[in-house]
Amino acid sequence: MPAAAAPSVPAARFSPFPSVTPRFFLLAVDEATTTPDHAAPLAHVTERSAVAELSNALLEEILHQVRPLTRQGKVADYIPALAQVEPDALGIAVLTHDGALYQAGDAEQRFSIQSISKVLSLTLAQTRYQEQEIWQRVGKEPSGQPFNSLVQLELERGKPRNPFINAGALVICDMLETRLTAPRQRMLEVVRQLCGEPSINYDRHVARSEFEHSARNAAIAWLMKSFGNFENDVPTVLQTYFHYCALSMSCVELARCFFYLANQGRPFGEAPPVLTVRQTRQVNALLITSGMYDGAGEFAWRVGMPAKSGVGGGIIAVIPGKMTLAVWSPGLDASGNSLAGTAALERLSERLGYSIF
Question: What is the pLDDT of residues 178-205, one digit of tens each?
Fold first, then answer.
């Protein structure tokens, strides 16, 4: 007979950006570089008959159910620093539209967010470039290929399919290197402000480990440069890219950071919009089609949320108008997505009855 669920602990509520002096917001929409937006609000999430209410106890129950999967996934080992992560780690955090924070497991333990950072670099580029400037250099289609593949890139003459595979993210970093004087520092400032946590930083050990084993990403960058789709010094852009991937954050911090994707481009609190409504829709659309590598279709089928994963084992997911979610379990499936993390989000979607479909 299953044990009775633990009493629900009241969700924490937090003041937005408690430790950051809001002198200005680094990602405030620049009217000179964004398209005026008069679009209608995001469509409401379809709510089926929910069988449970969101609570810390529910999250604990779900983690208990999926914990056996933590040992079935494979921790990324092509980056030696990531191979050292404890495979049993498992955490989840959910931030709702009204500021209620729910969490369970290792939700406050920081880890390398890896490709989740590609959403942040795209967001930063959207505030610095006109729409057509971005999409003439990188596409909007799913690749159907491994995230570090060169085959498709060669056939399509150096234009990456989307900004969430390595080639696309490298092009975005190249664009930021062109437009920003200190792209690594600017990214830190942005993330710290979105999370309200000034201690967030890069894991220098991970960044160095990635650079020392960067042959494939360097090959991708040089191939794009041969087609004229890369402007800056390749090693310099690679360093920026690896530092972005080496951002160290927790599930709680990720849920706060990406709140703007669930809130029509507005971060939690009173800060100005990060993106326009149109831009936010575009990012969420790309997350559905391309956010989970070549497992995006399977994830949409099972979970039904815009999401982005990283080989560090993290996944961020969005229910527009409702909540942001972040889960972490280092063991990966064949597509490079967290095995237990995906299962946890699937169970939570089923229990709450939430999906964008």
Answer: 999 999 999 999 999 999 999 999 999 9
Integer Cα distance of 300 and 175 in angstroms: 30
**252 assigned to active site:** no
Q: What is the pLDDT of residue 150?
A: 85
- Domains of the chain (ranges; CATH) run 44-355 (3.40.710.10)
Annotated binding-site positions for substrate: 115, 166, 210, 217, 241, 293, 311
Alpha-carbon torsion 147, 148, 153, 154, what sign? negative
Chain-centroid distance of CA 334 in Å reads: 19
pTM: 0.87
Which H or E run includes 12? strand 12-13
Residue 11 pLDDT = 55
Average pLDDT, the chain: 88
Question: Residue 42: which residues within 8 A CB-CB, separation 6 or more?
Answer: 264, 277, 280, 281, 320, 321
User: Catalytic: which of 129, 244, 260, 293?
Assistant: 293
Told to judge if 225 belongs to the known catalytic residues of this protein, a careful annotator would answer no
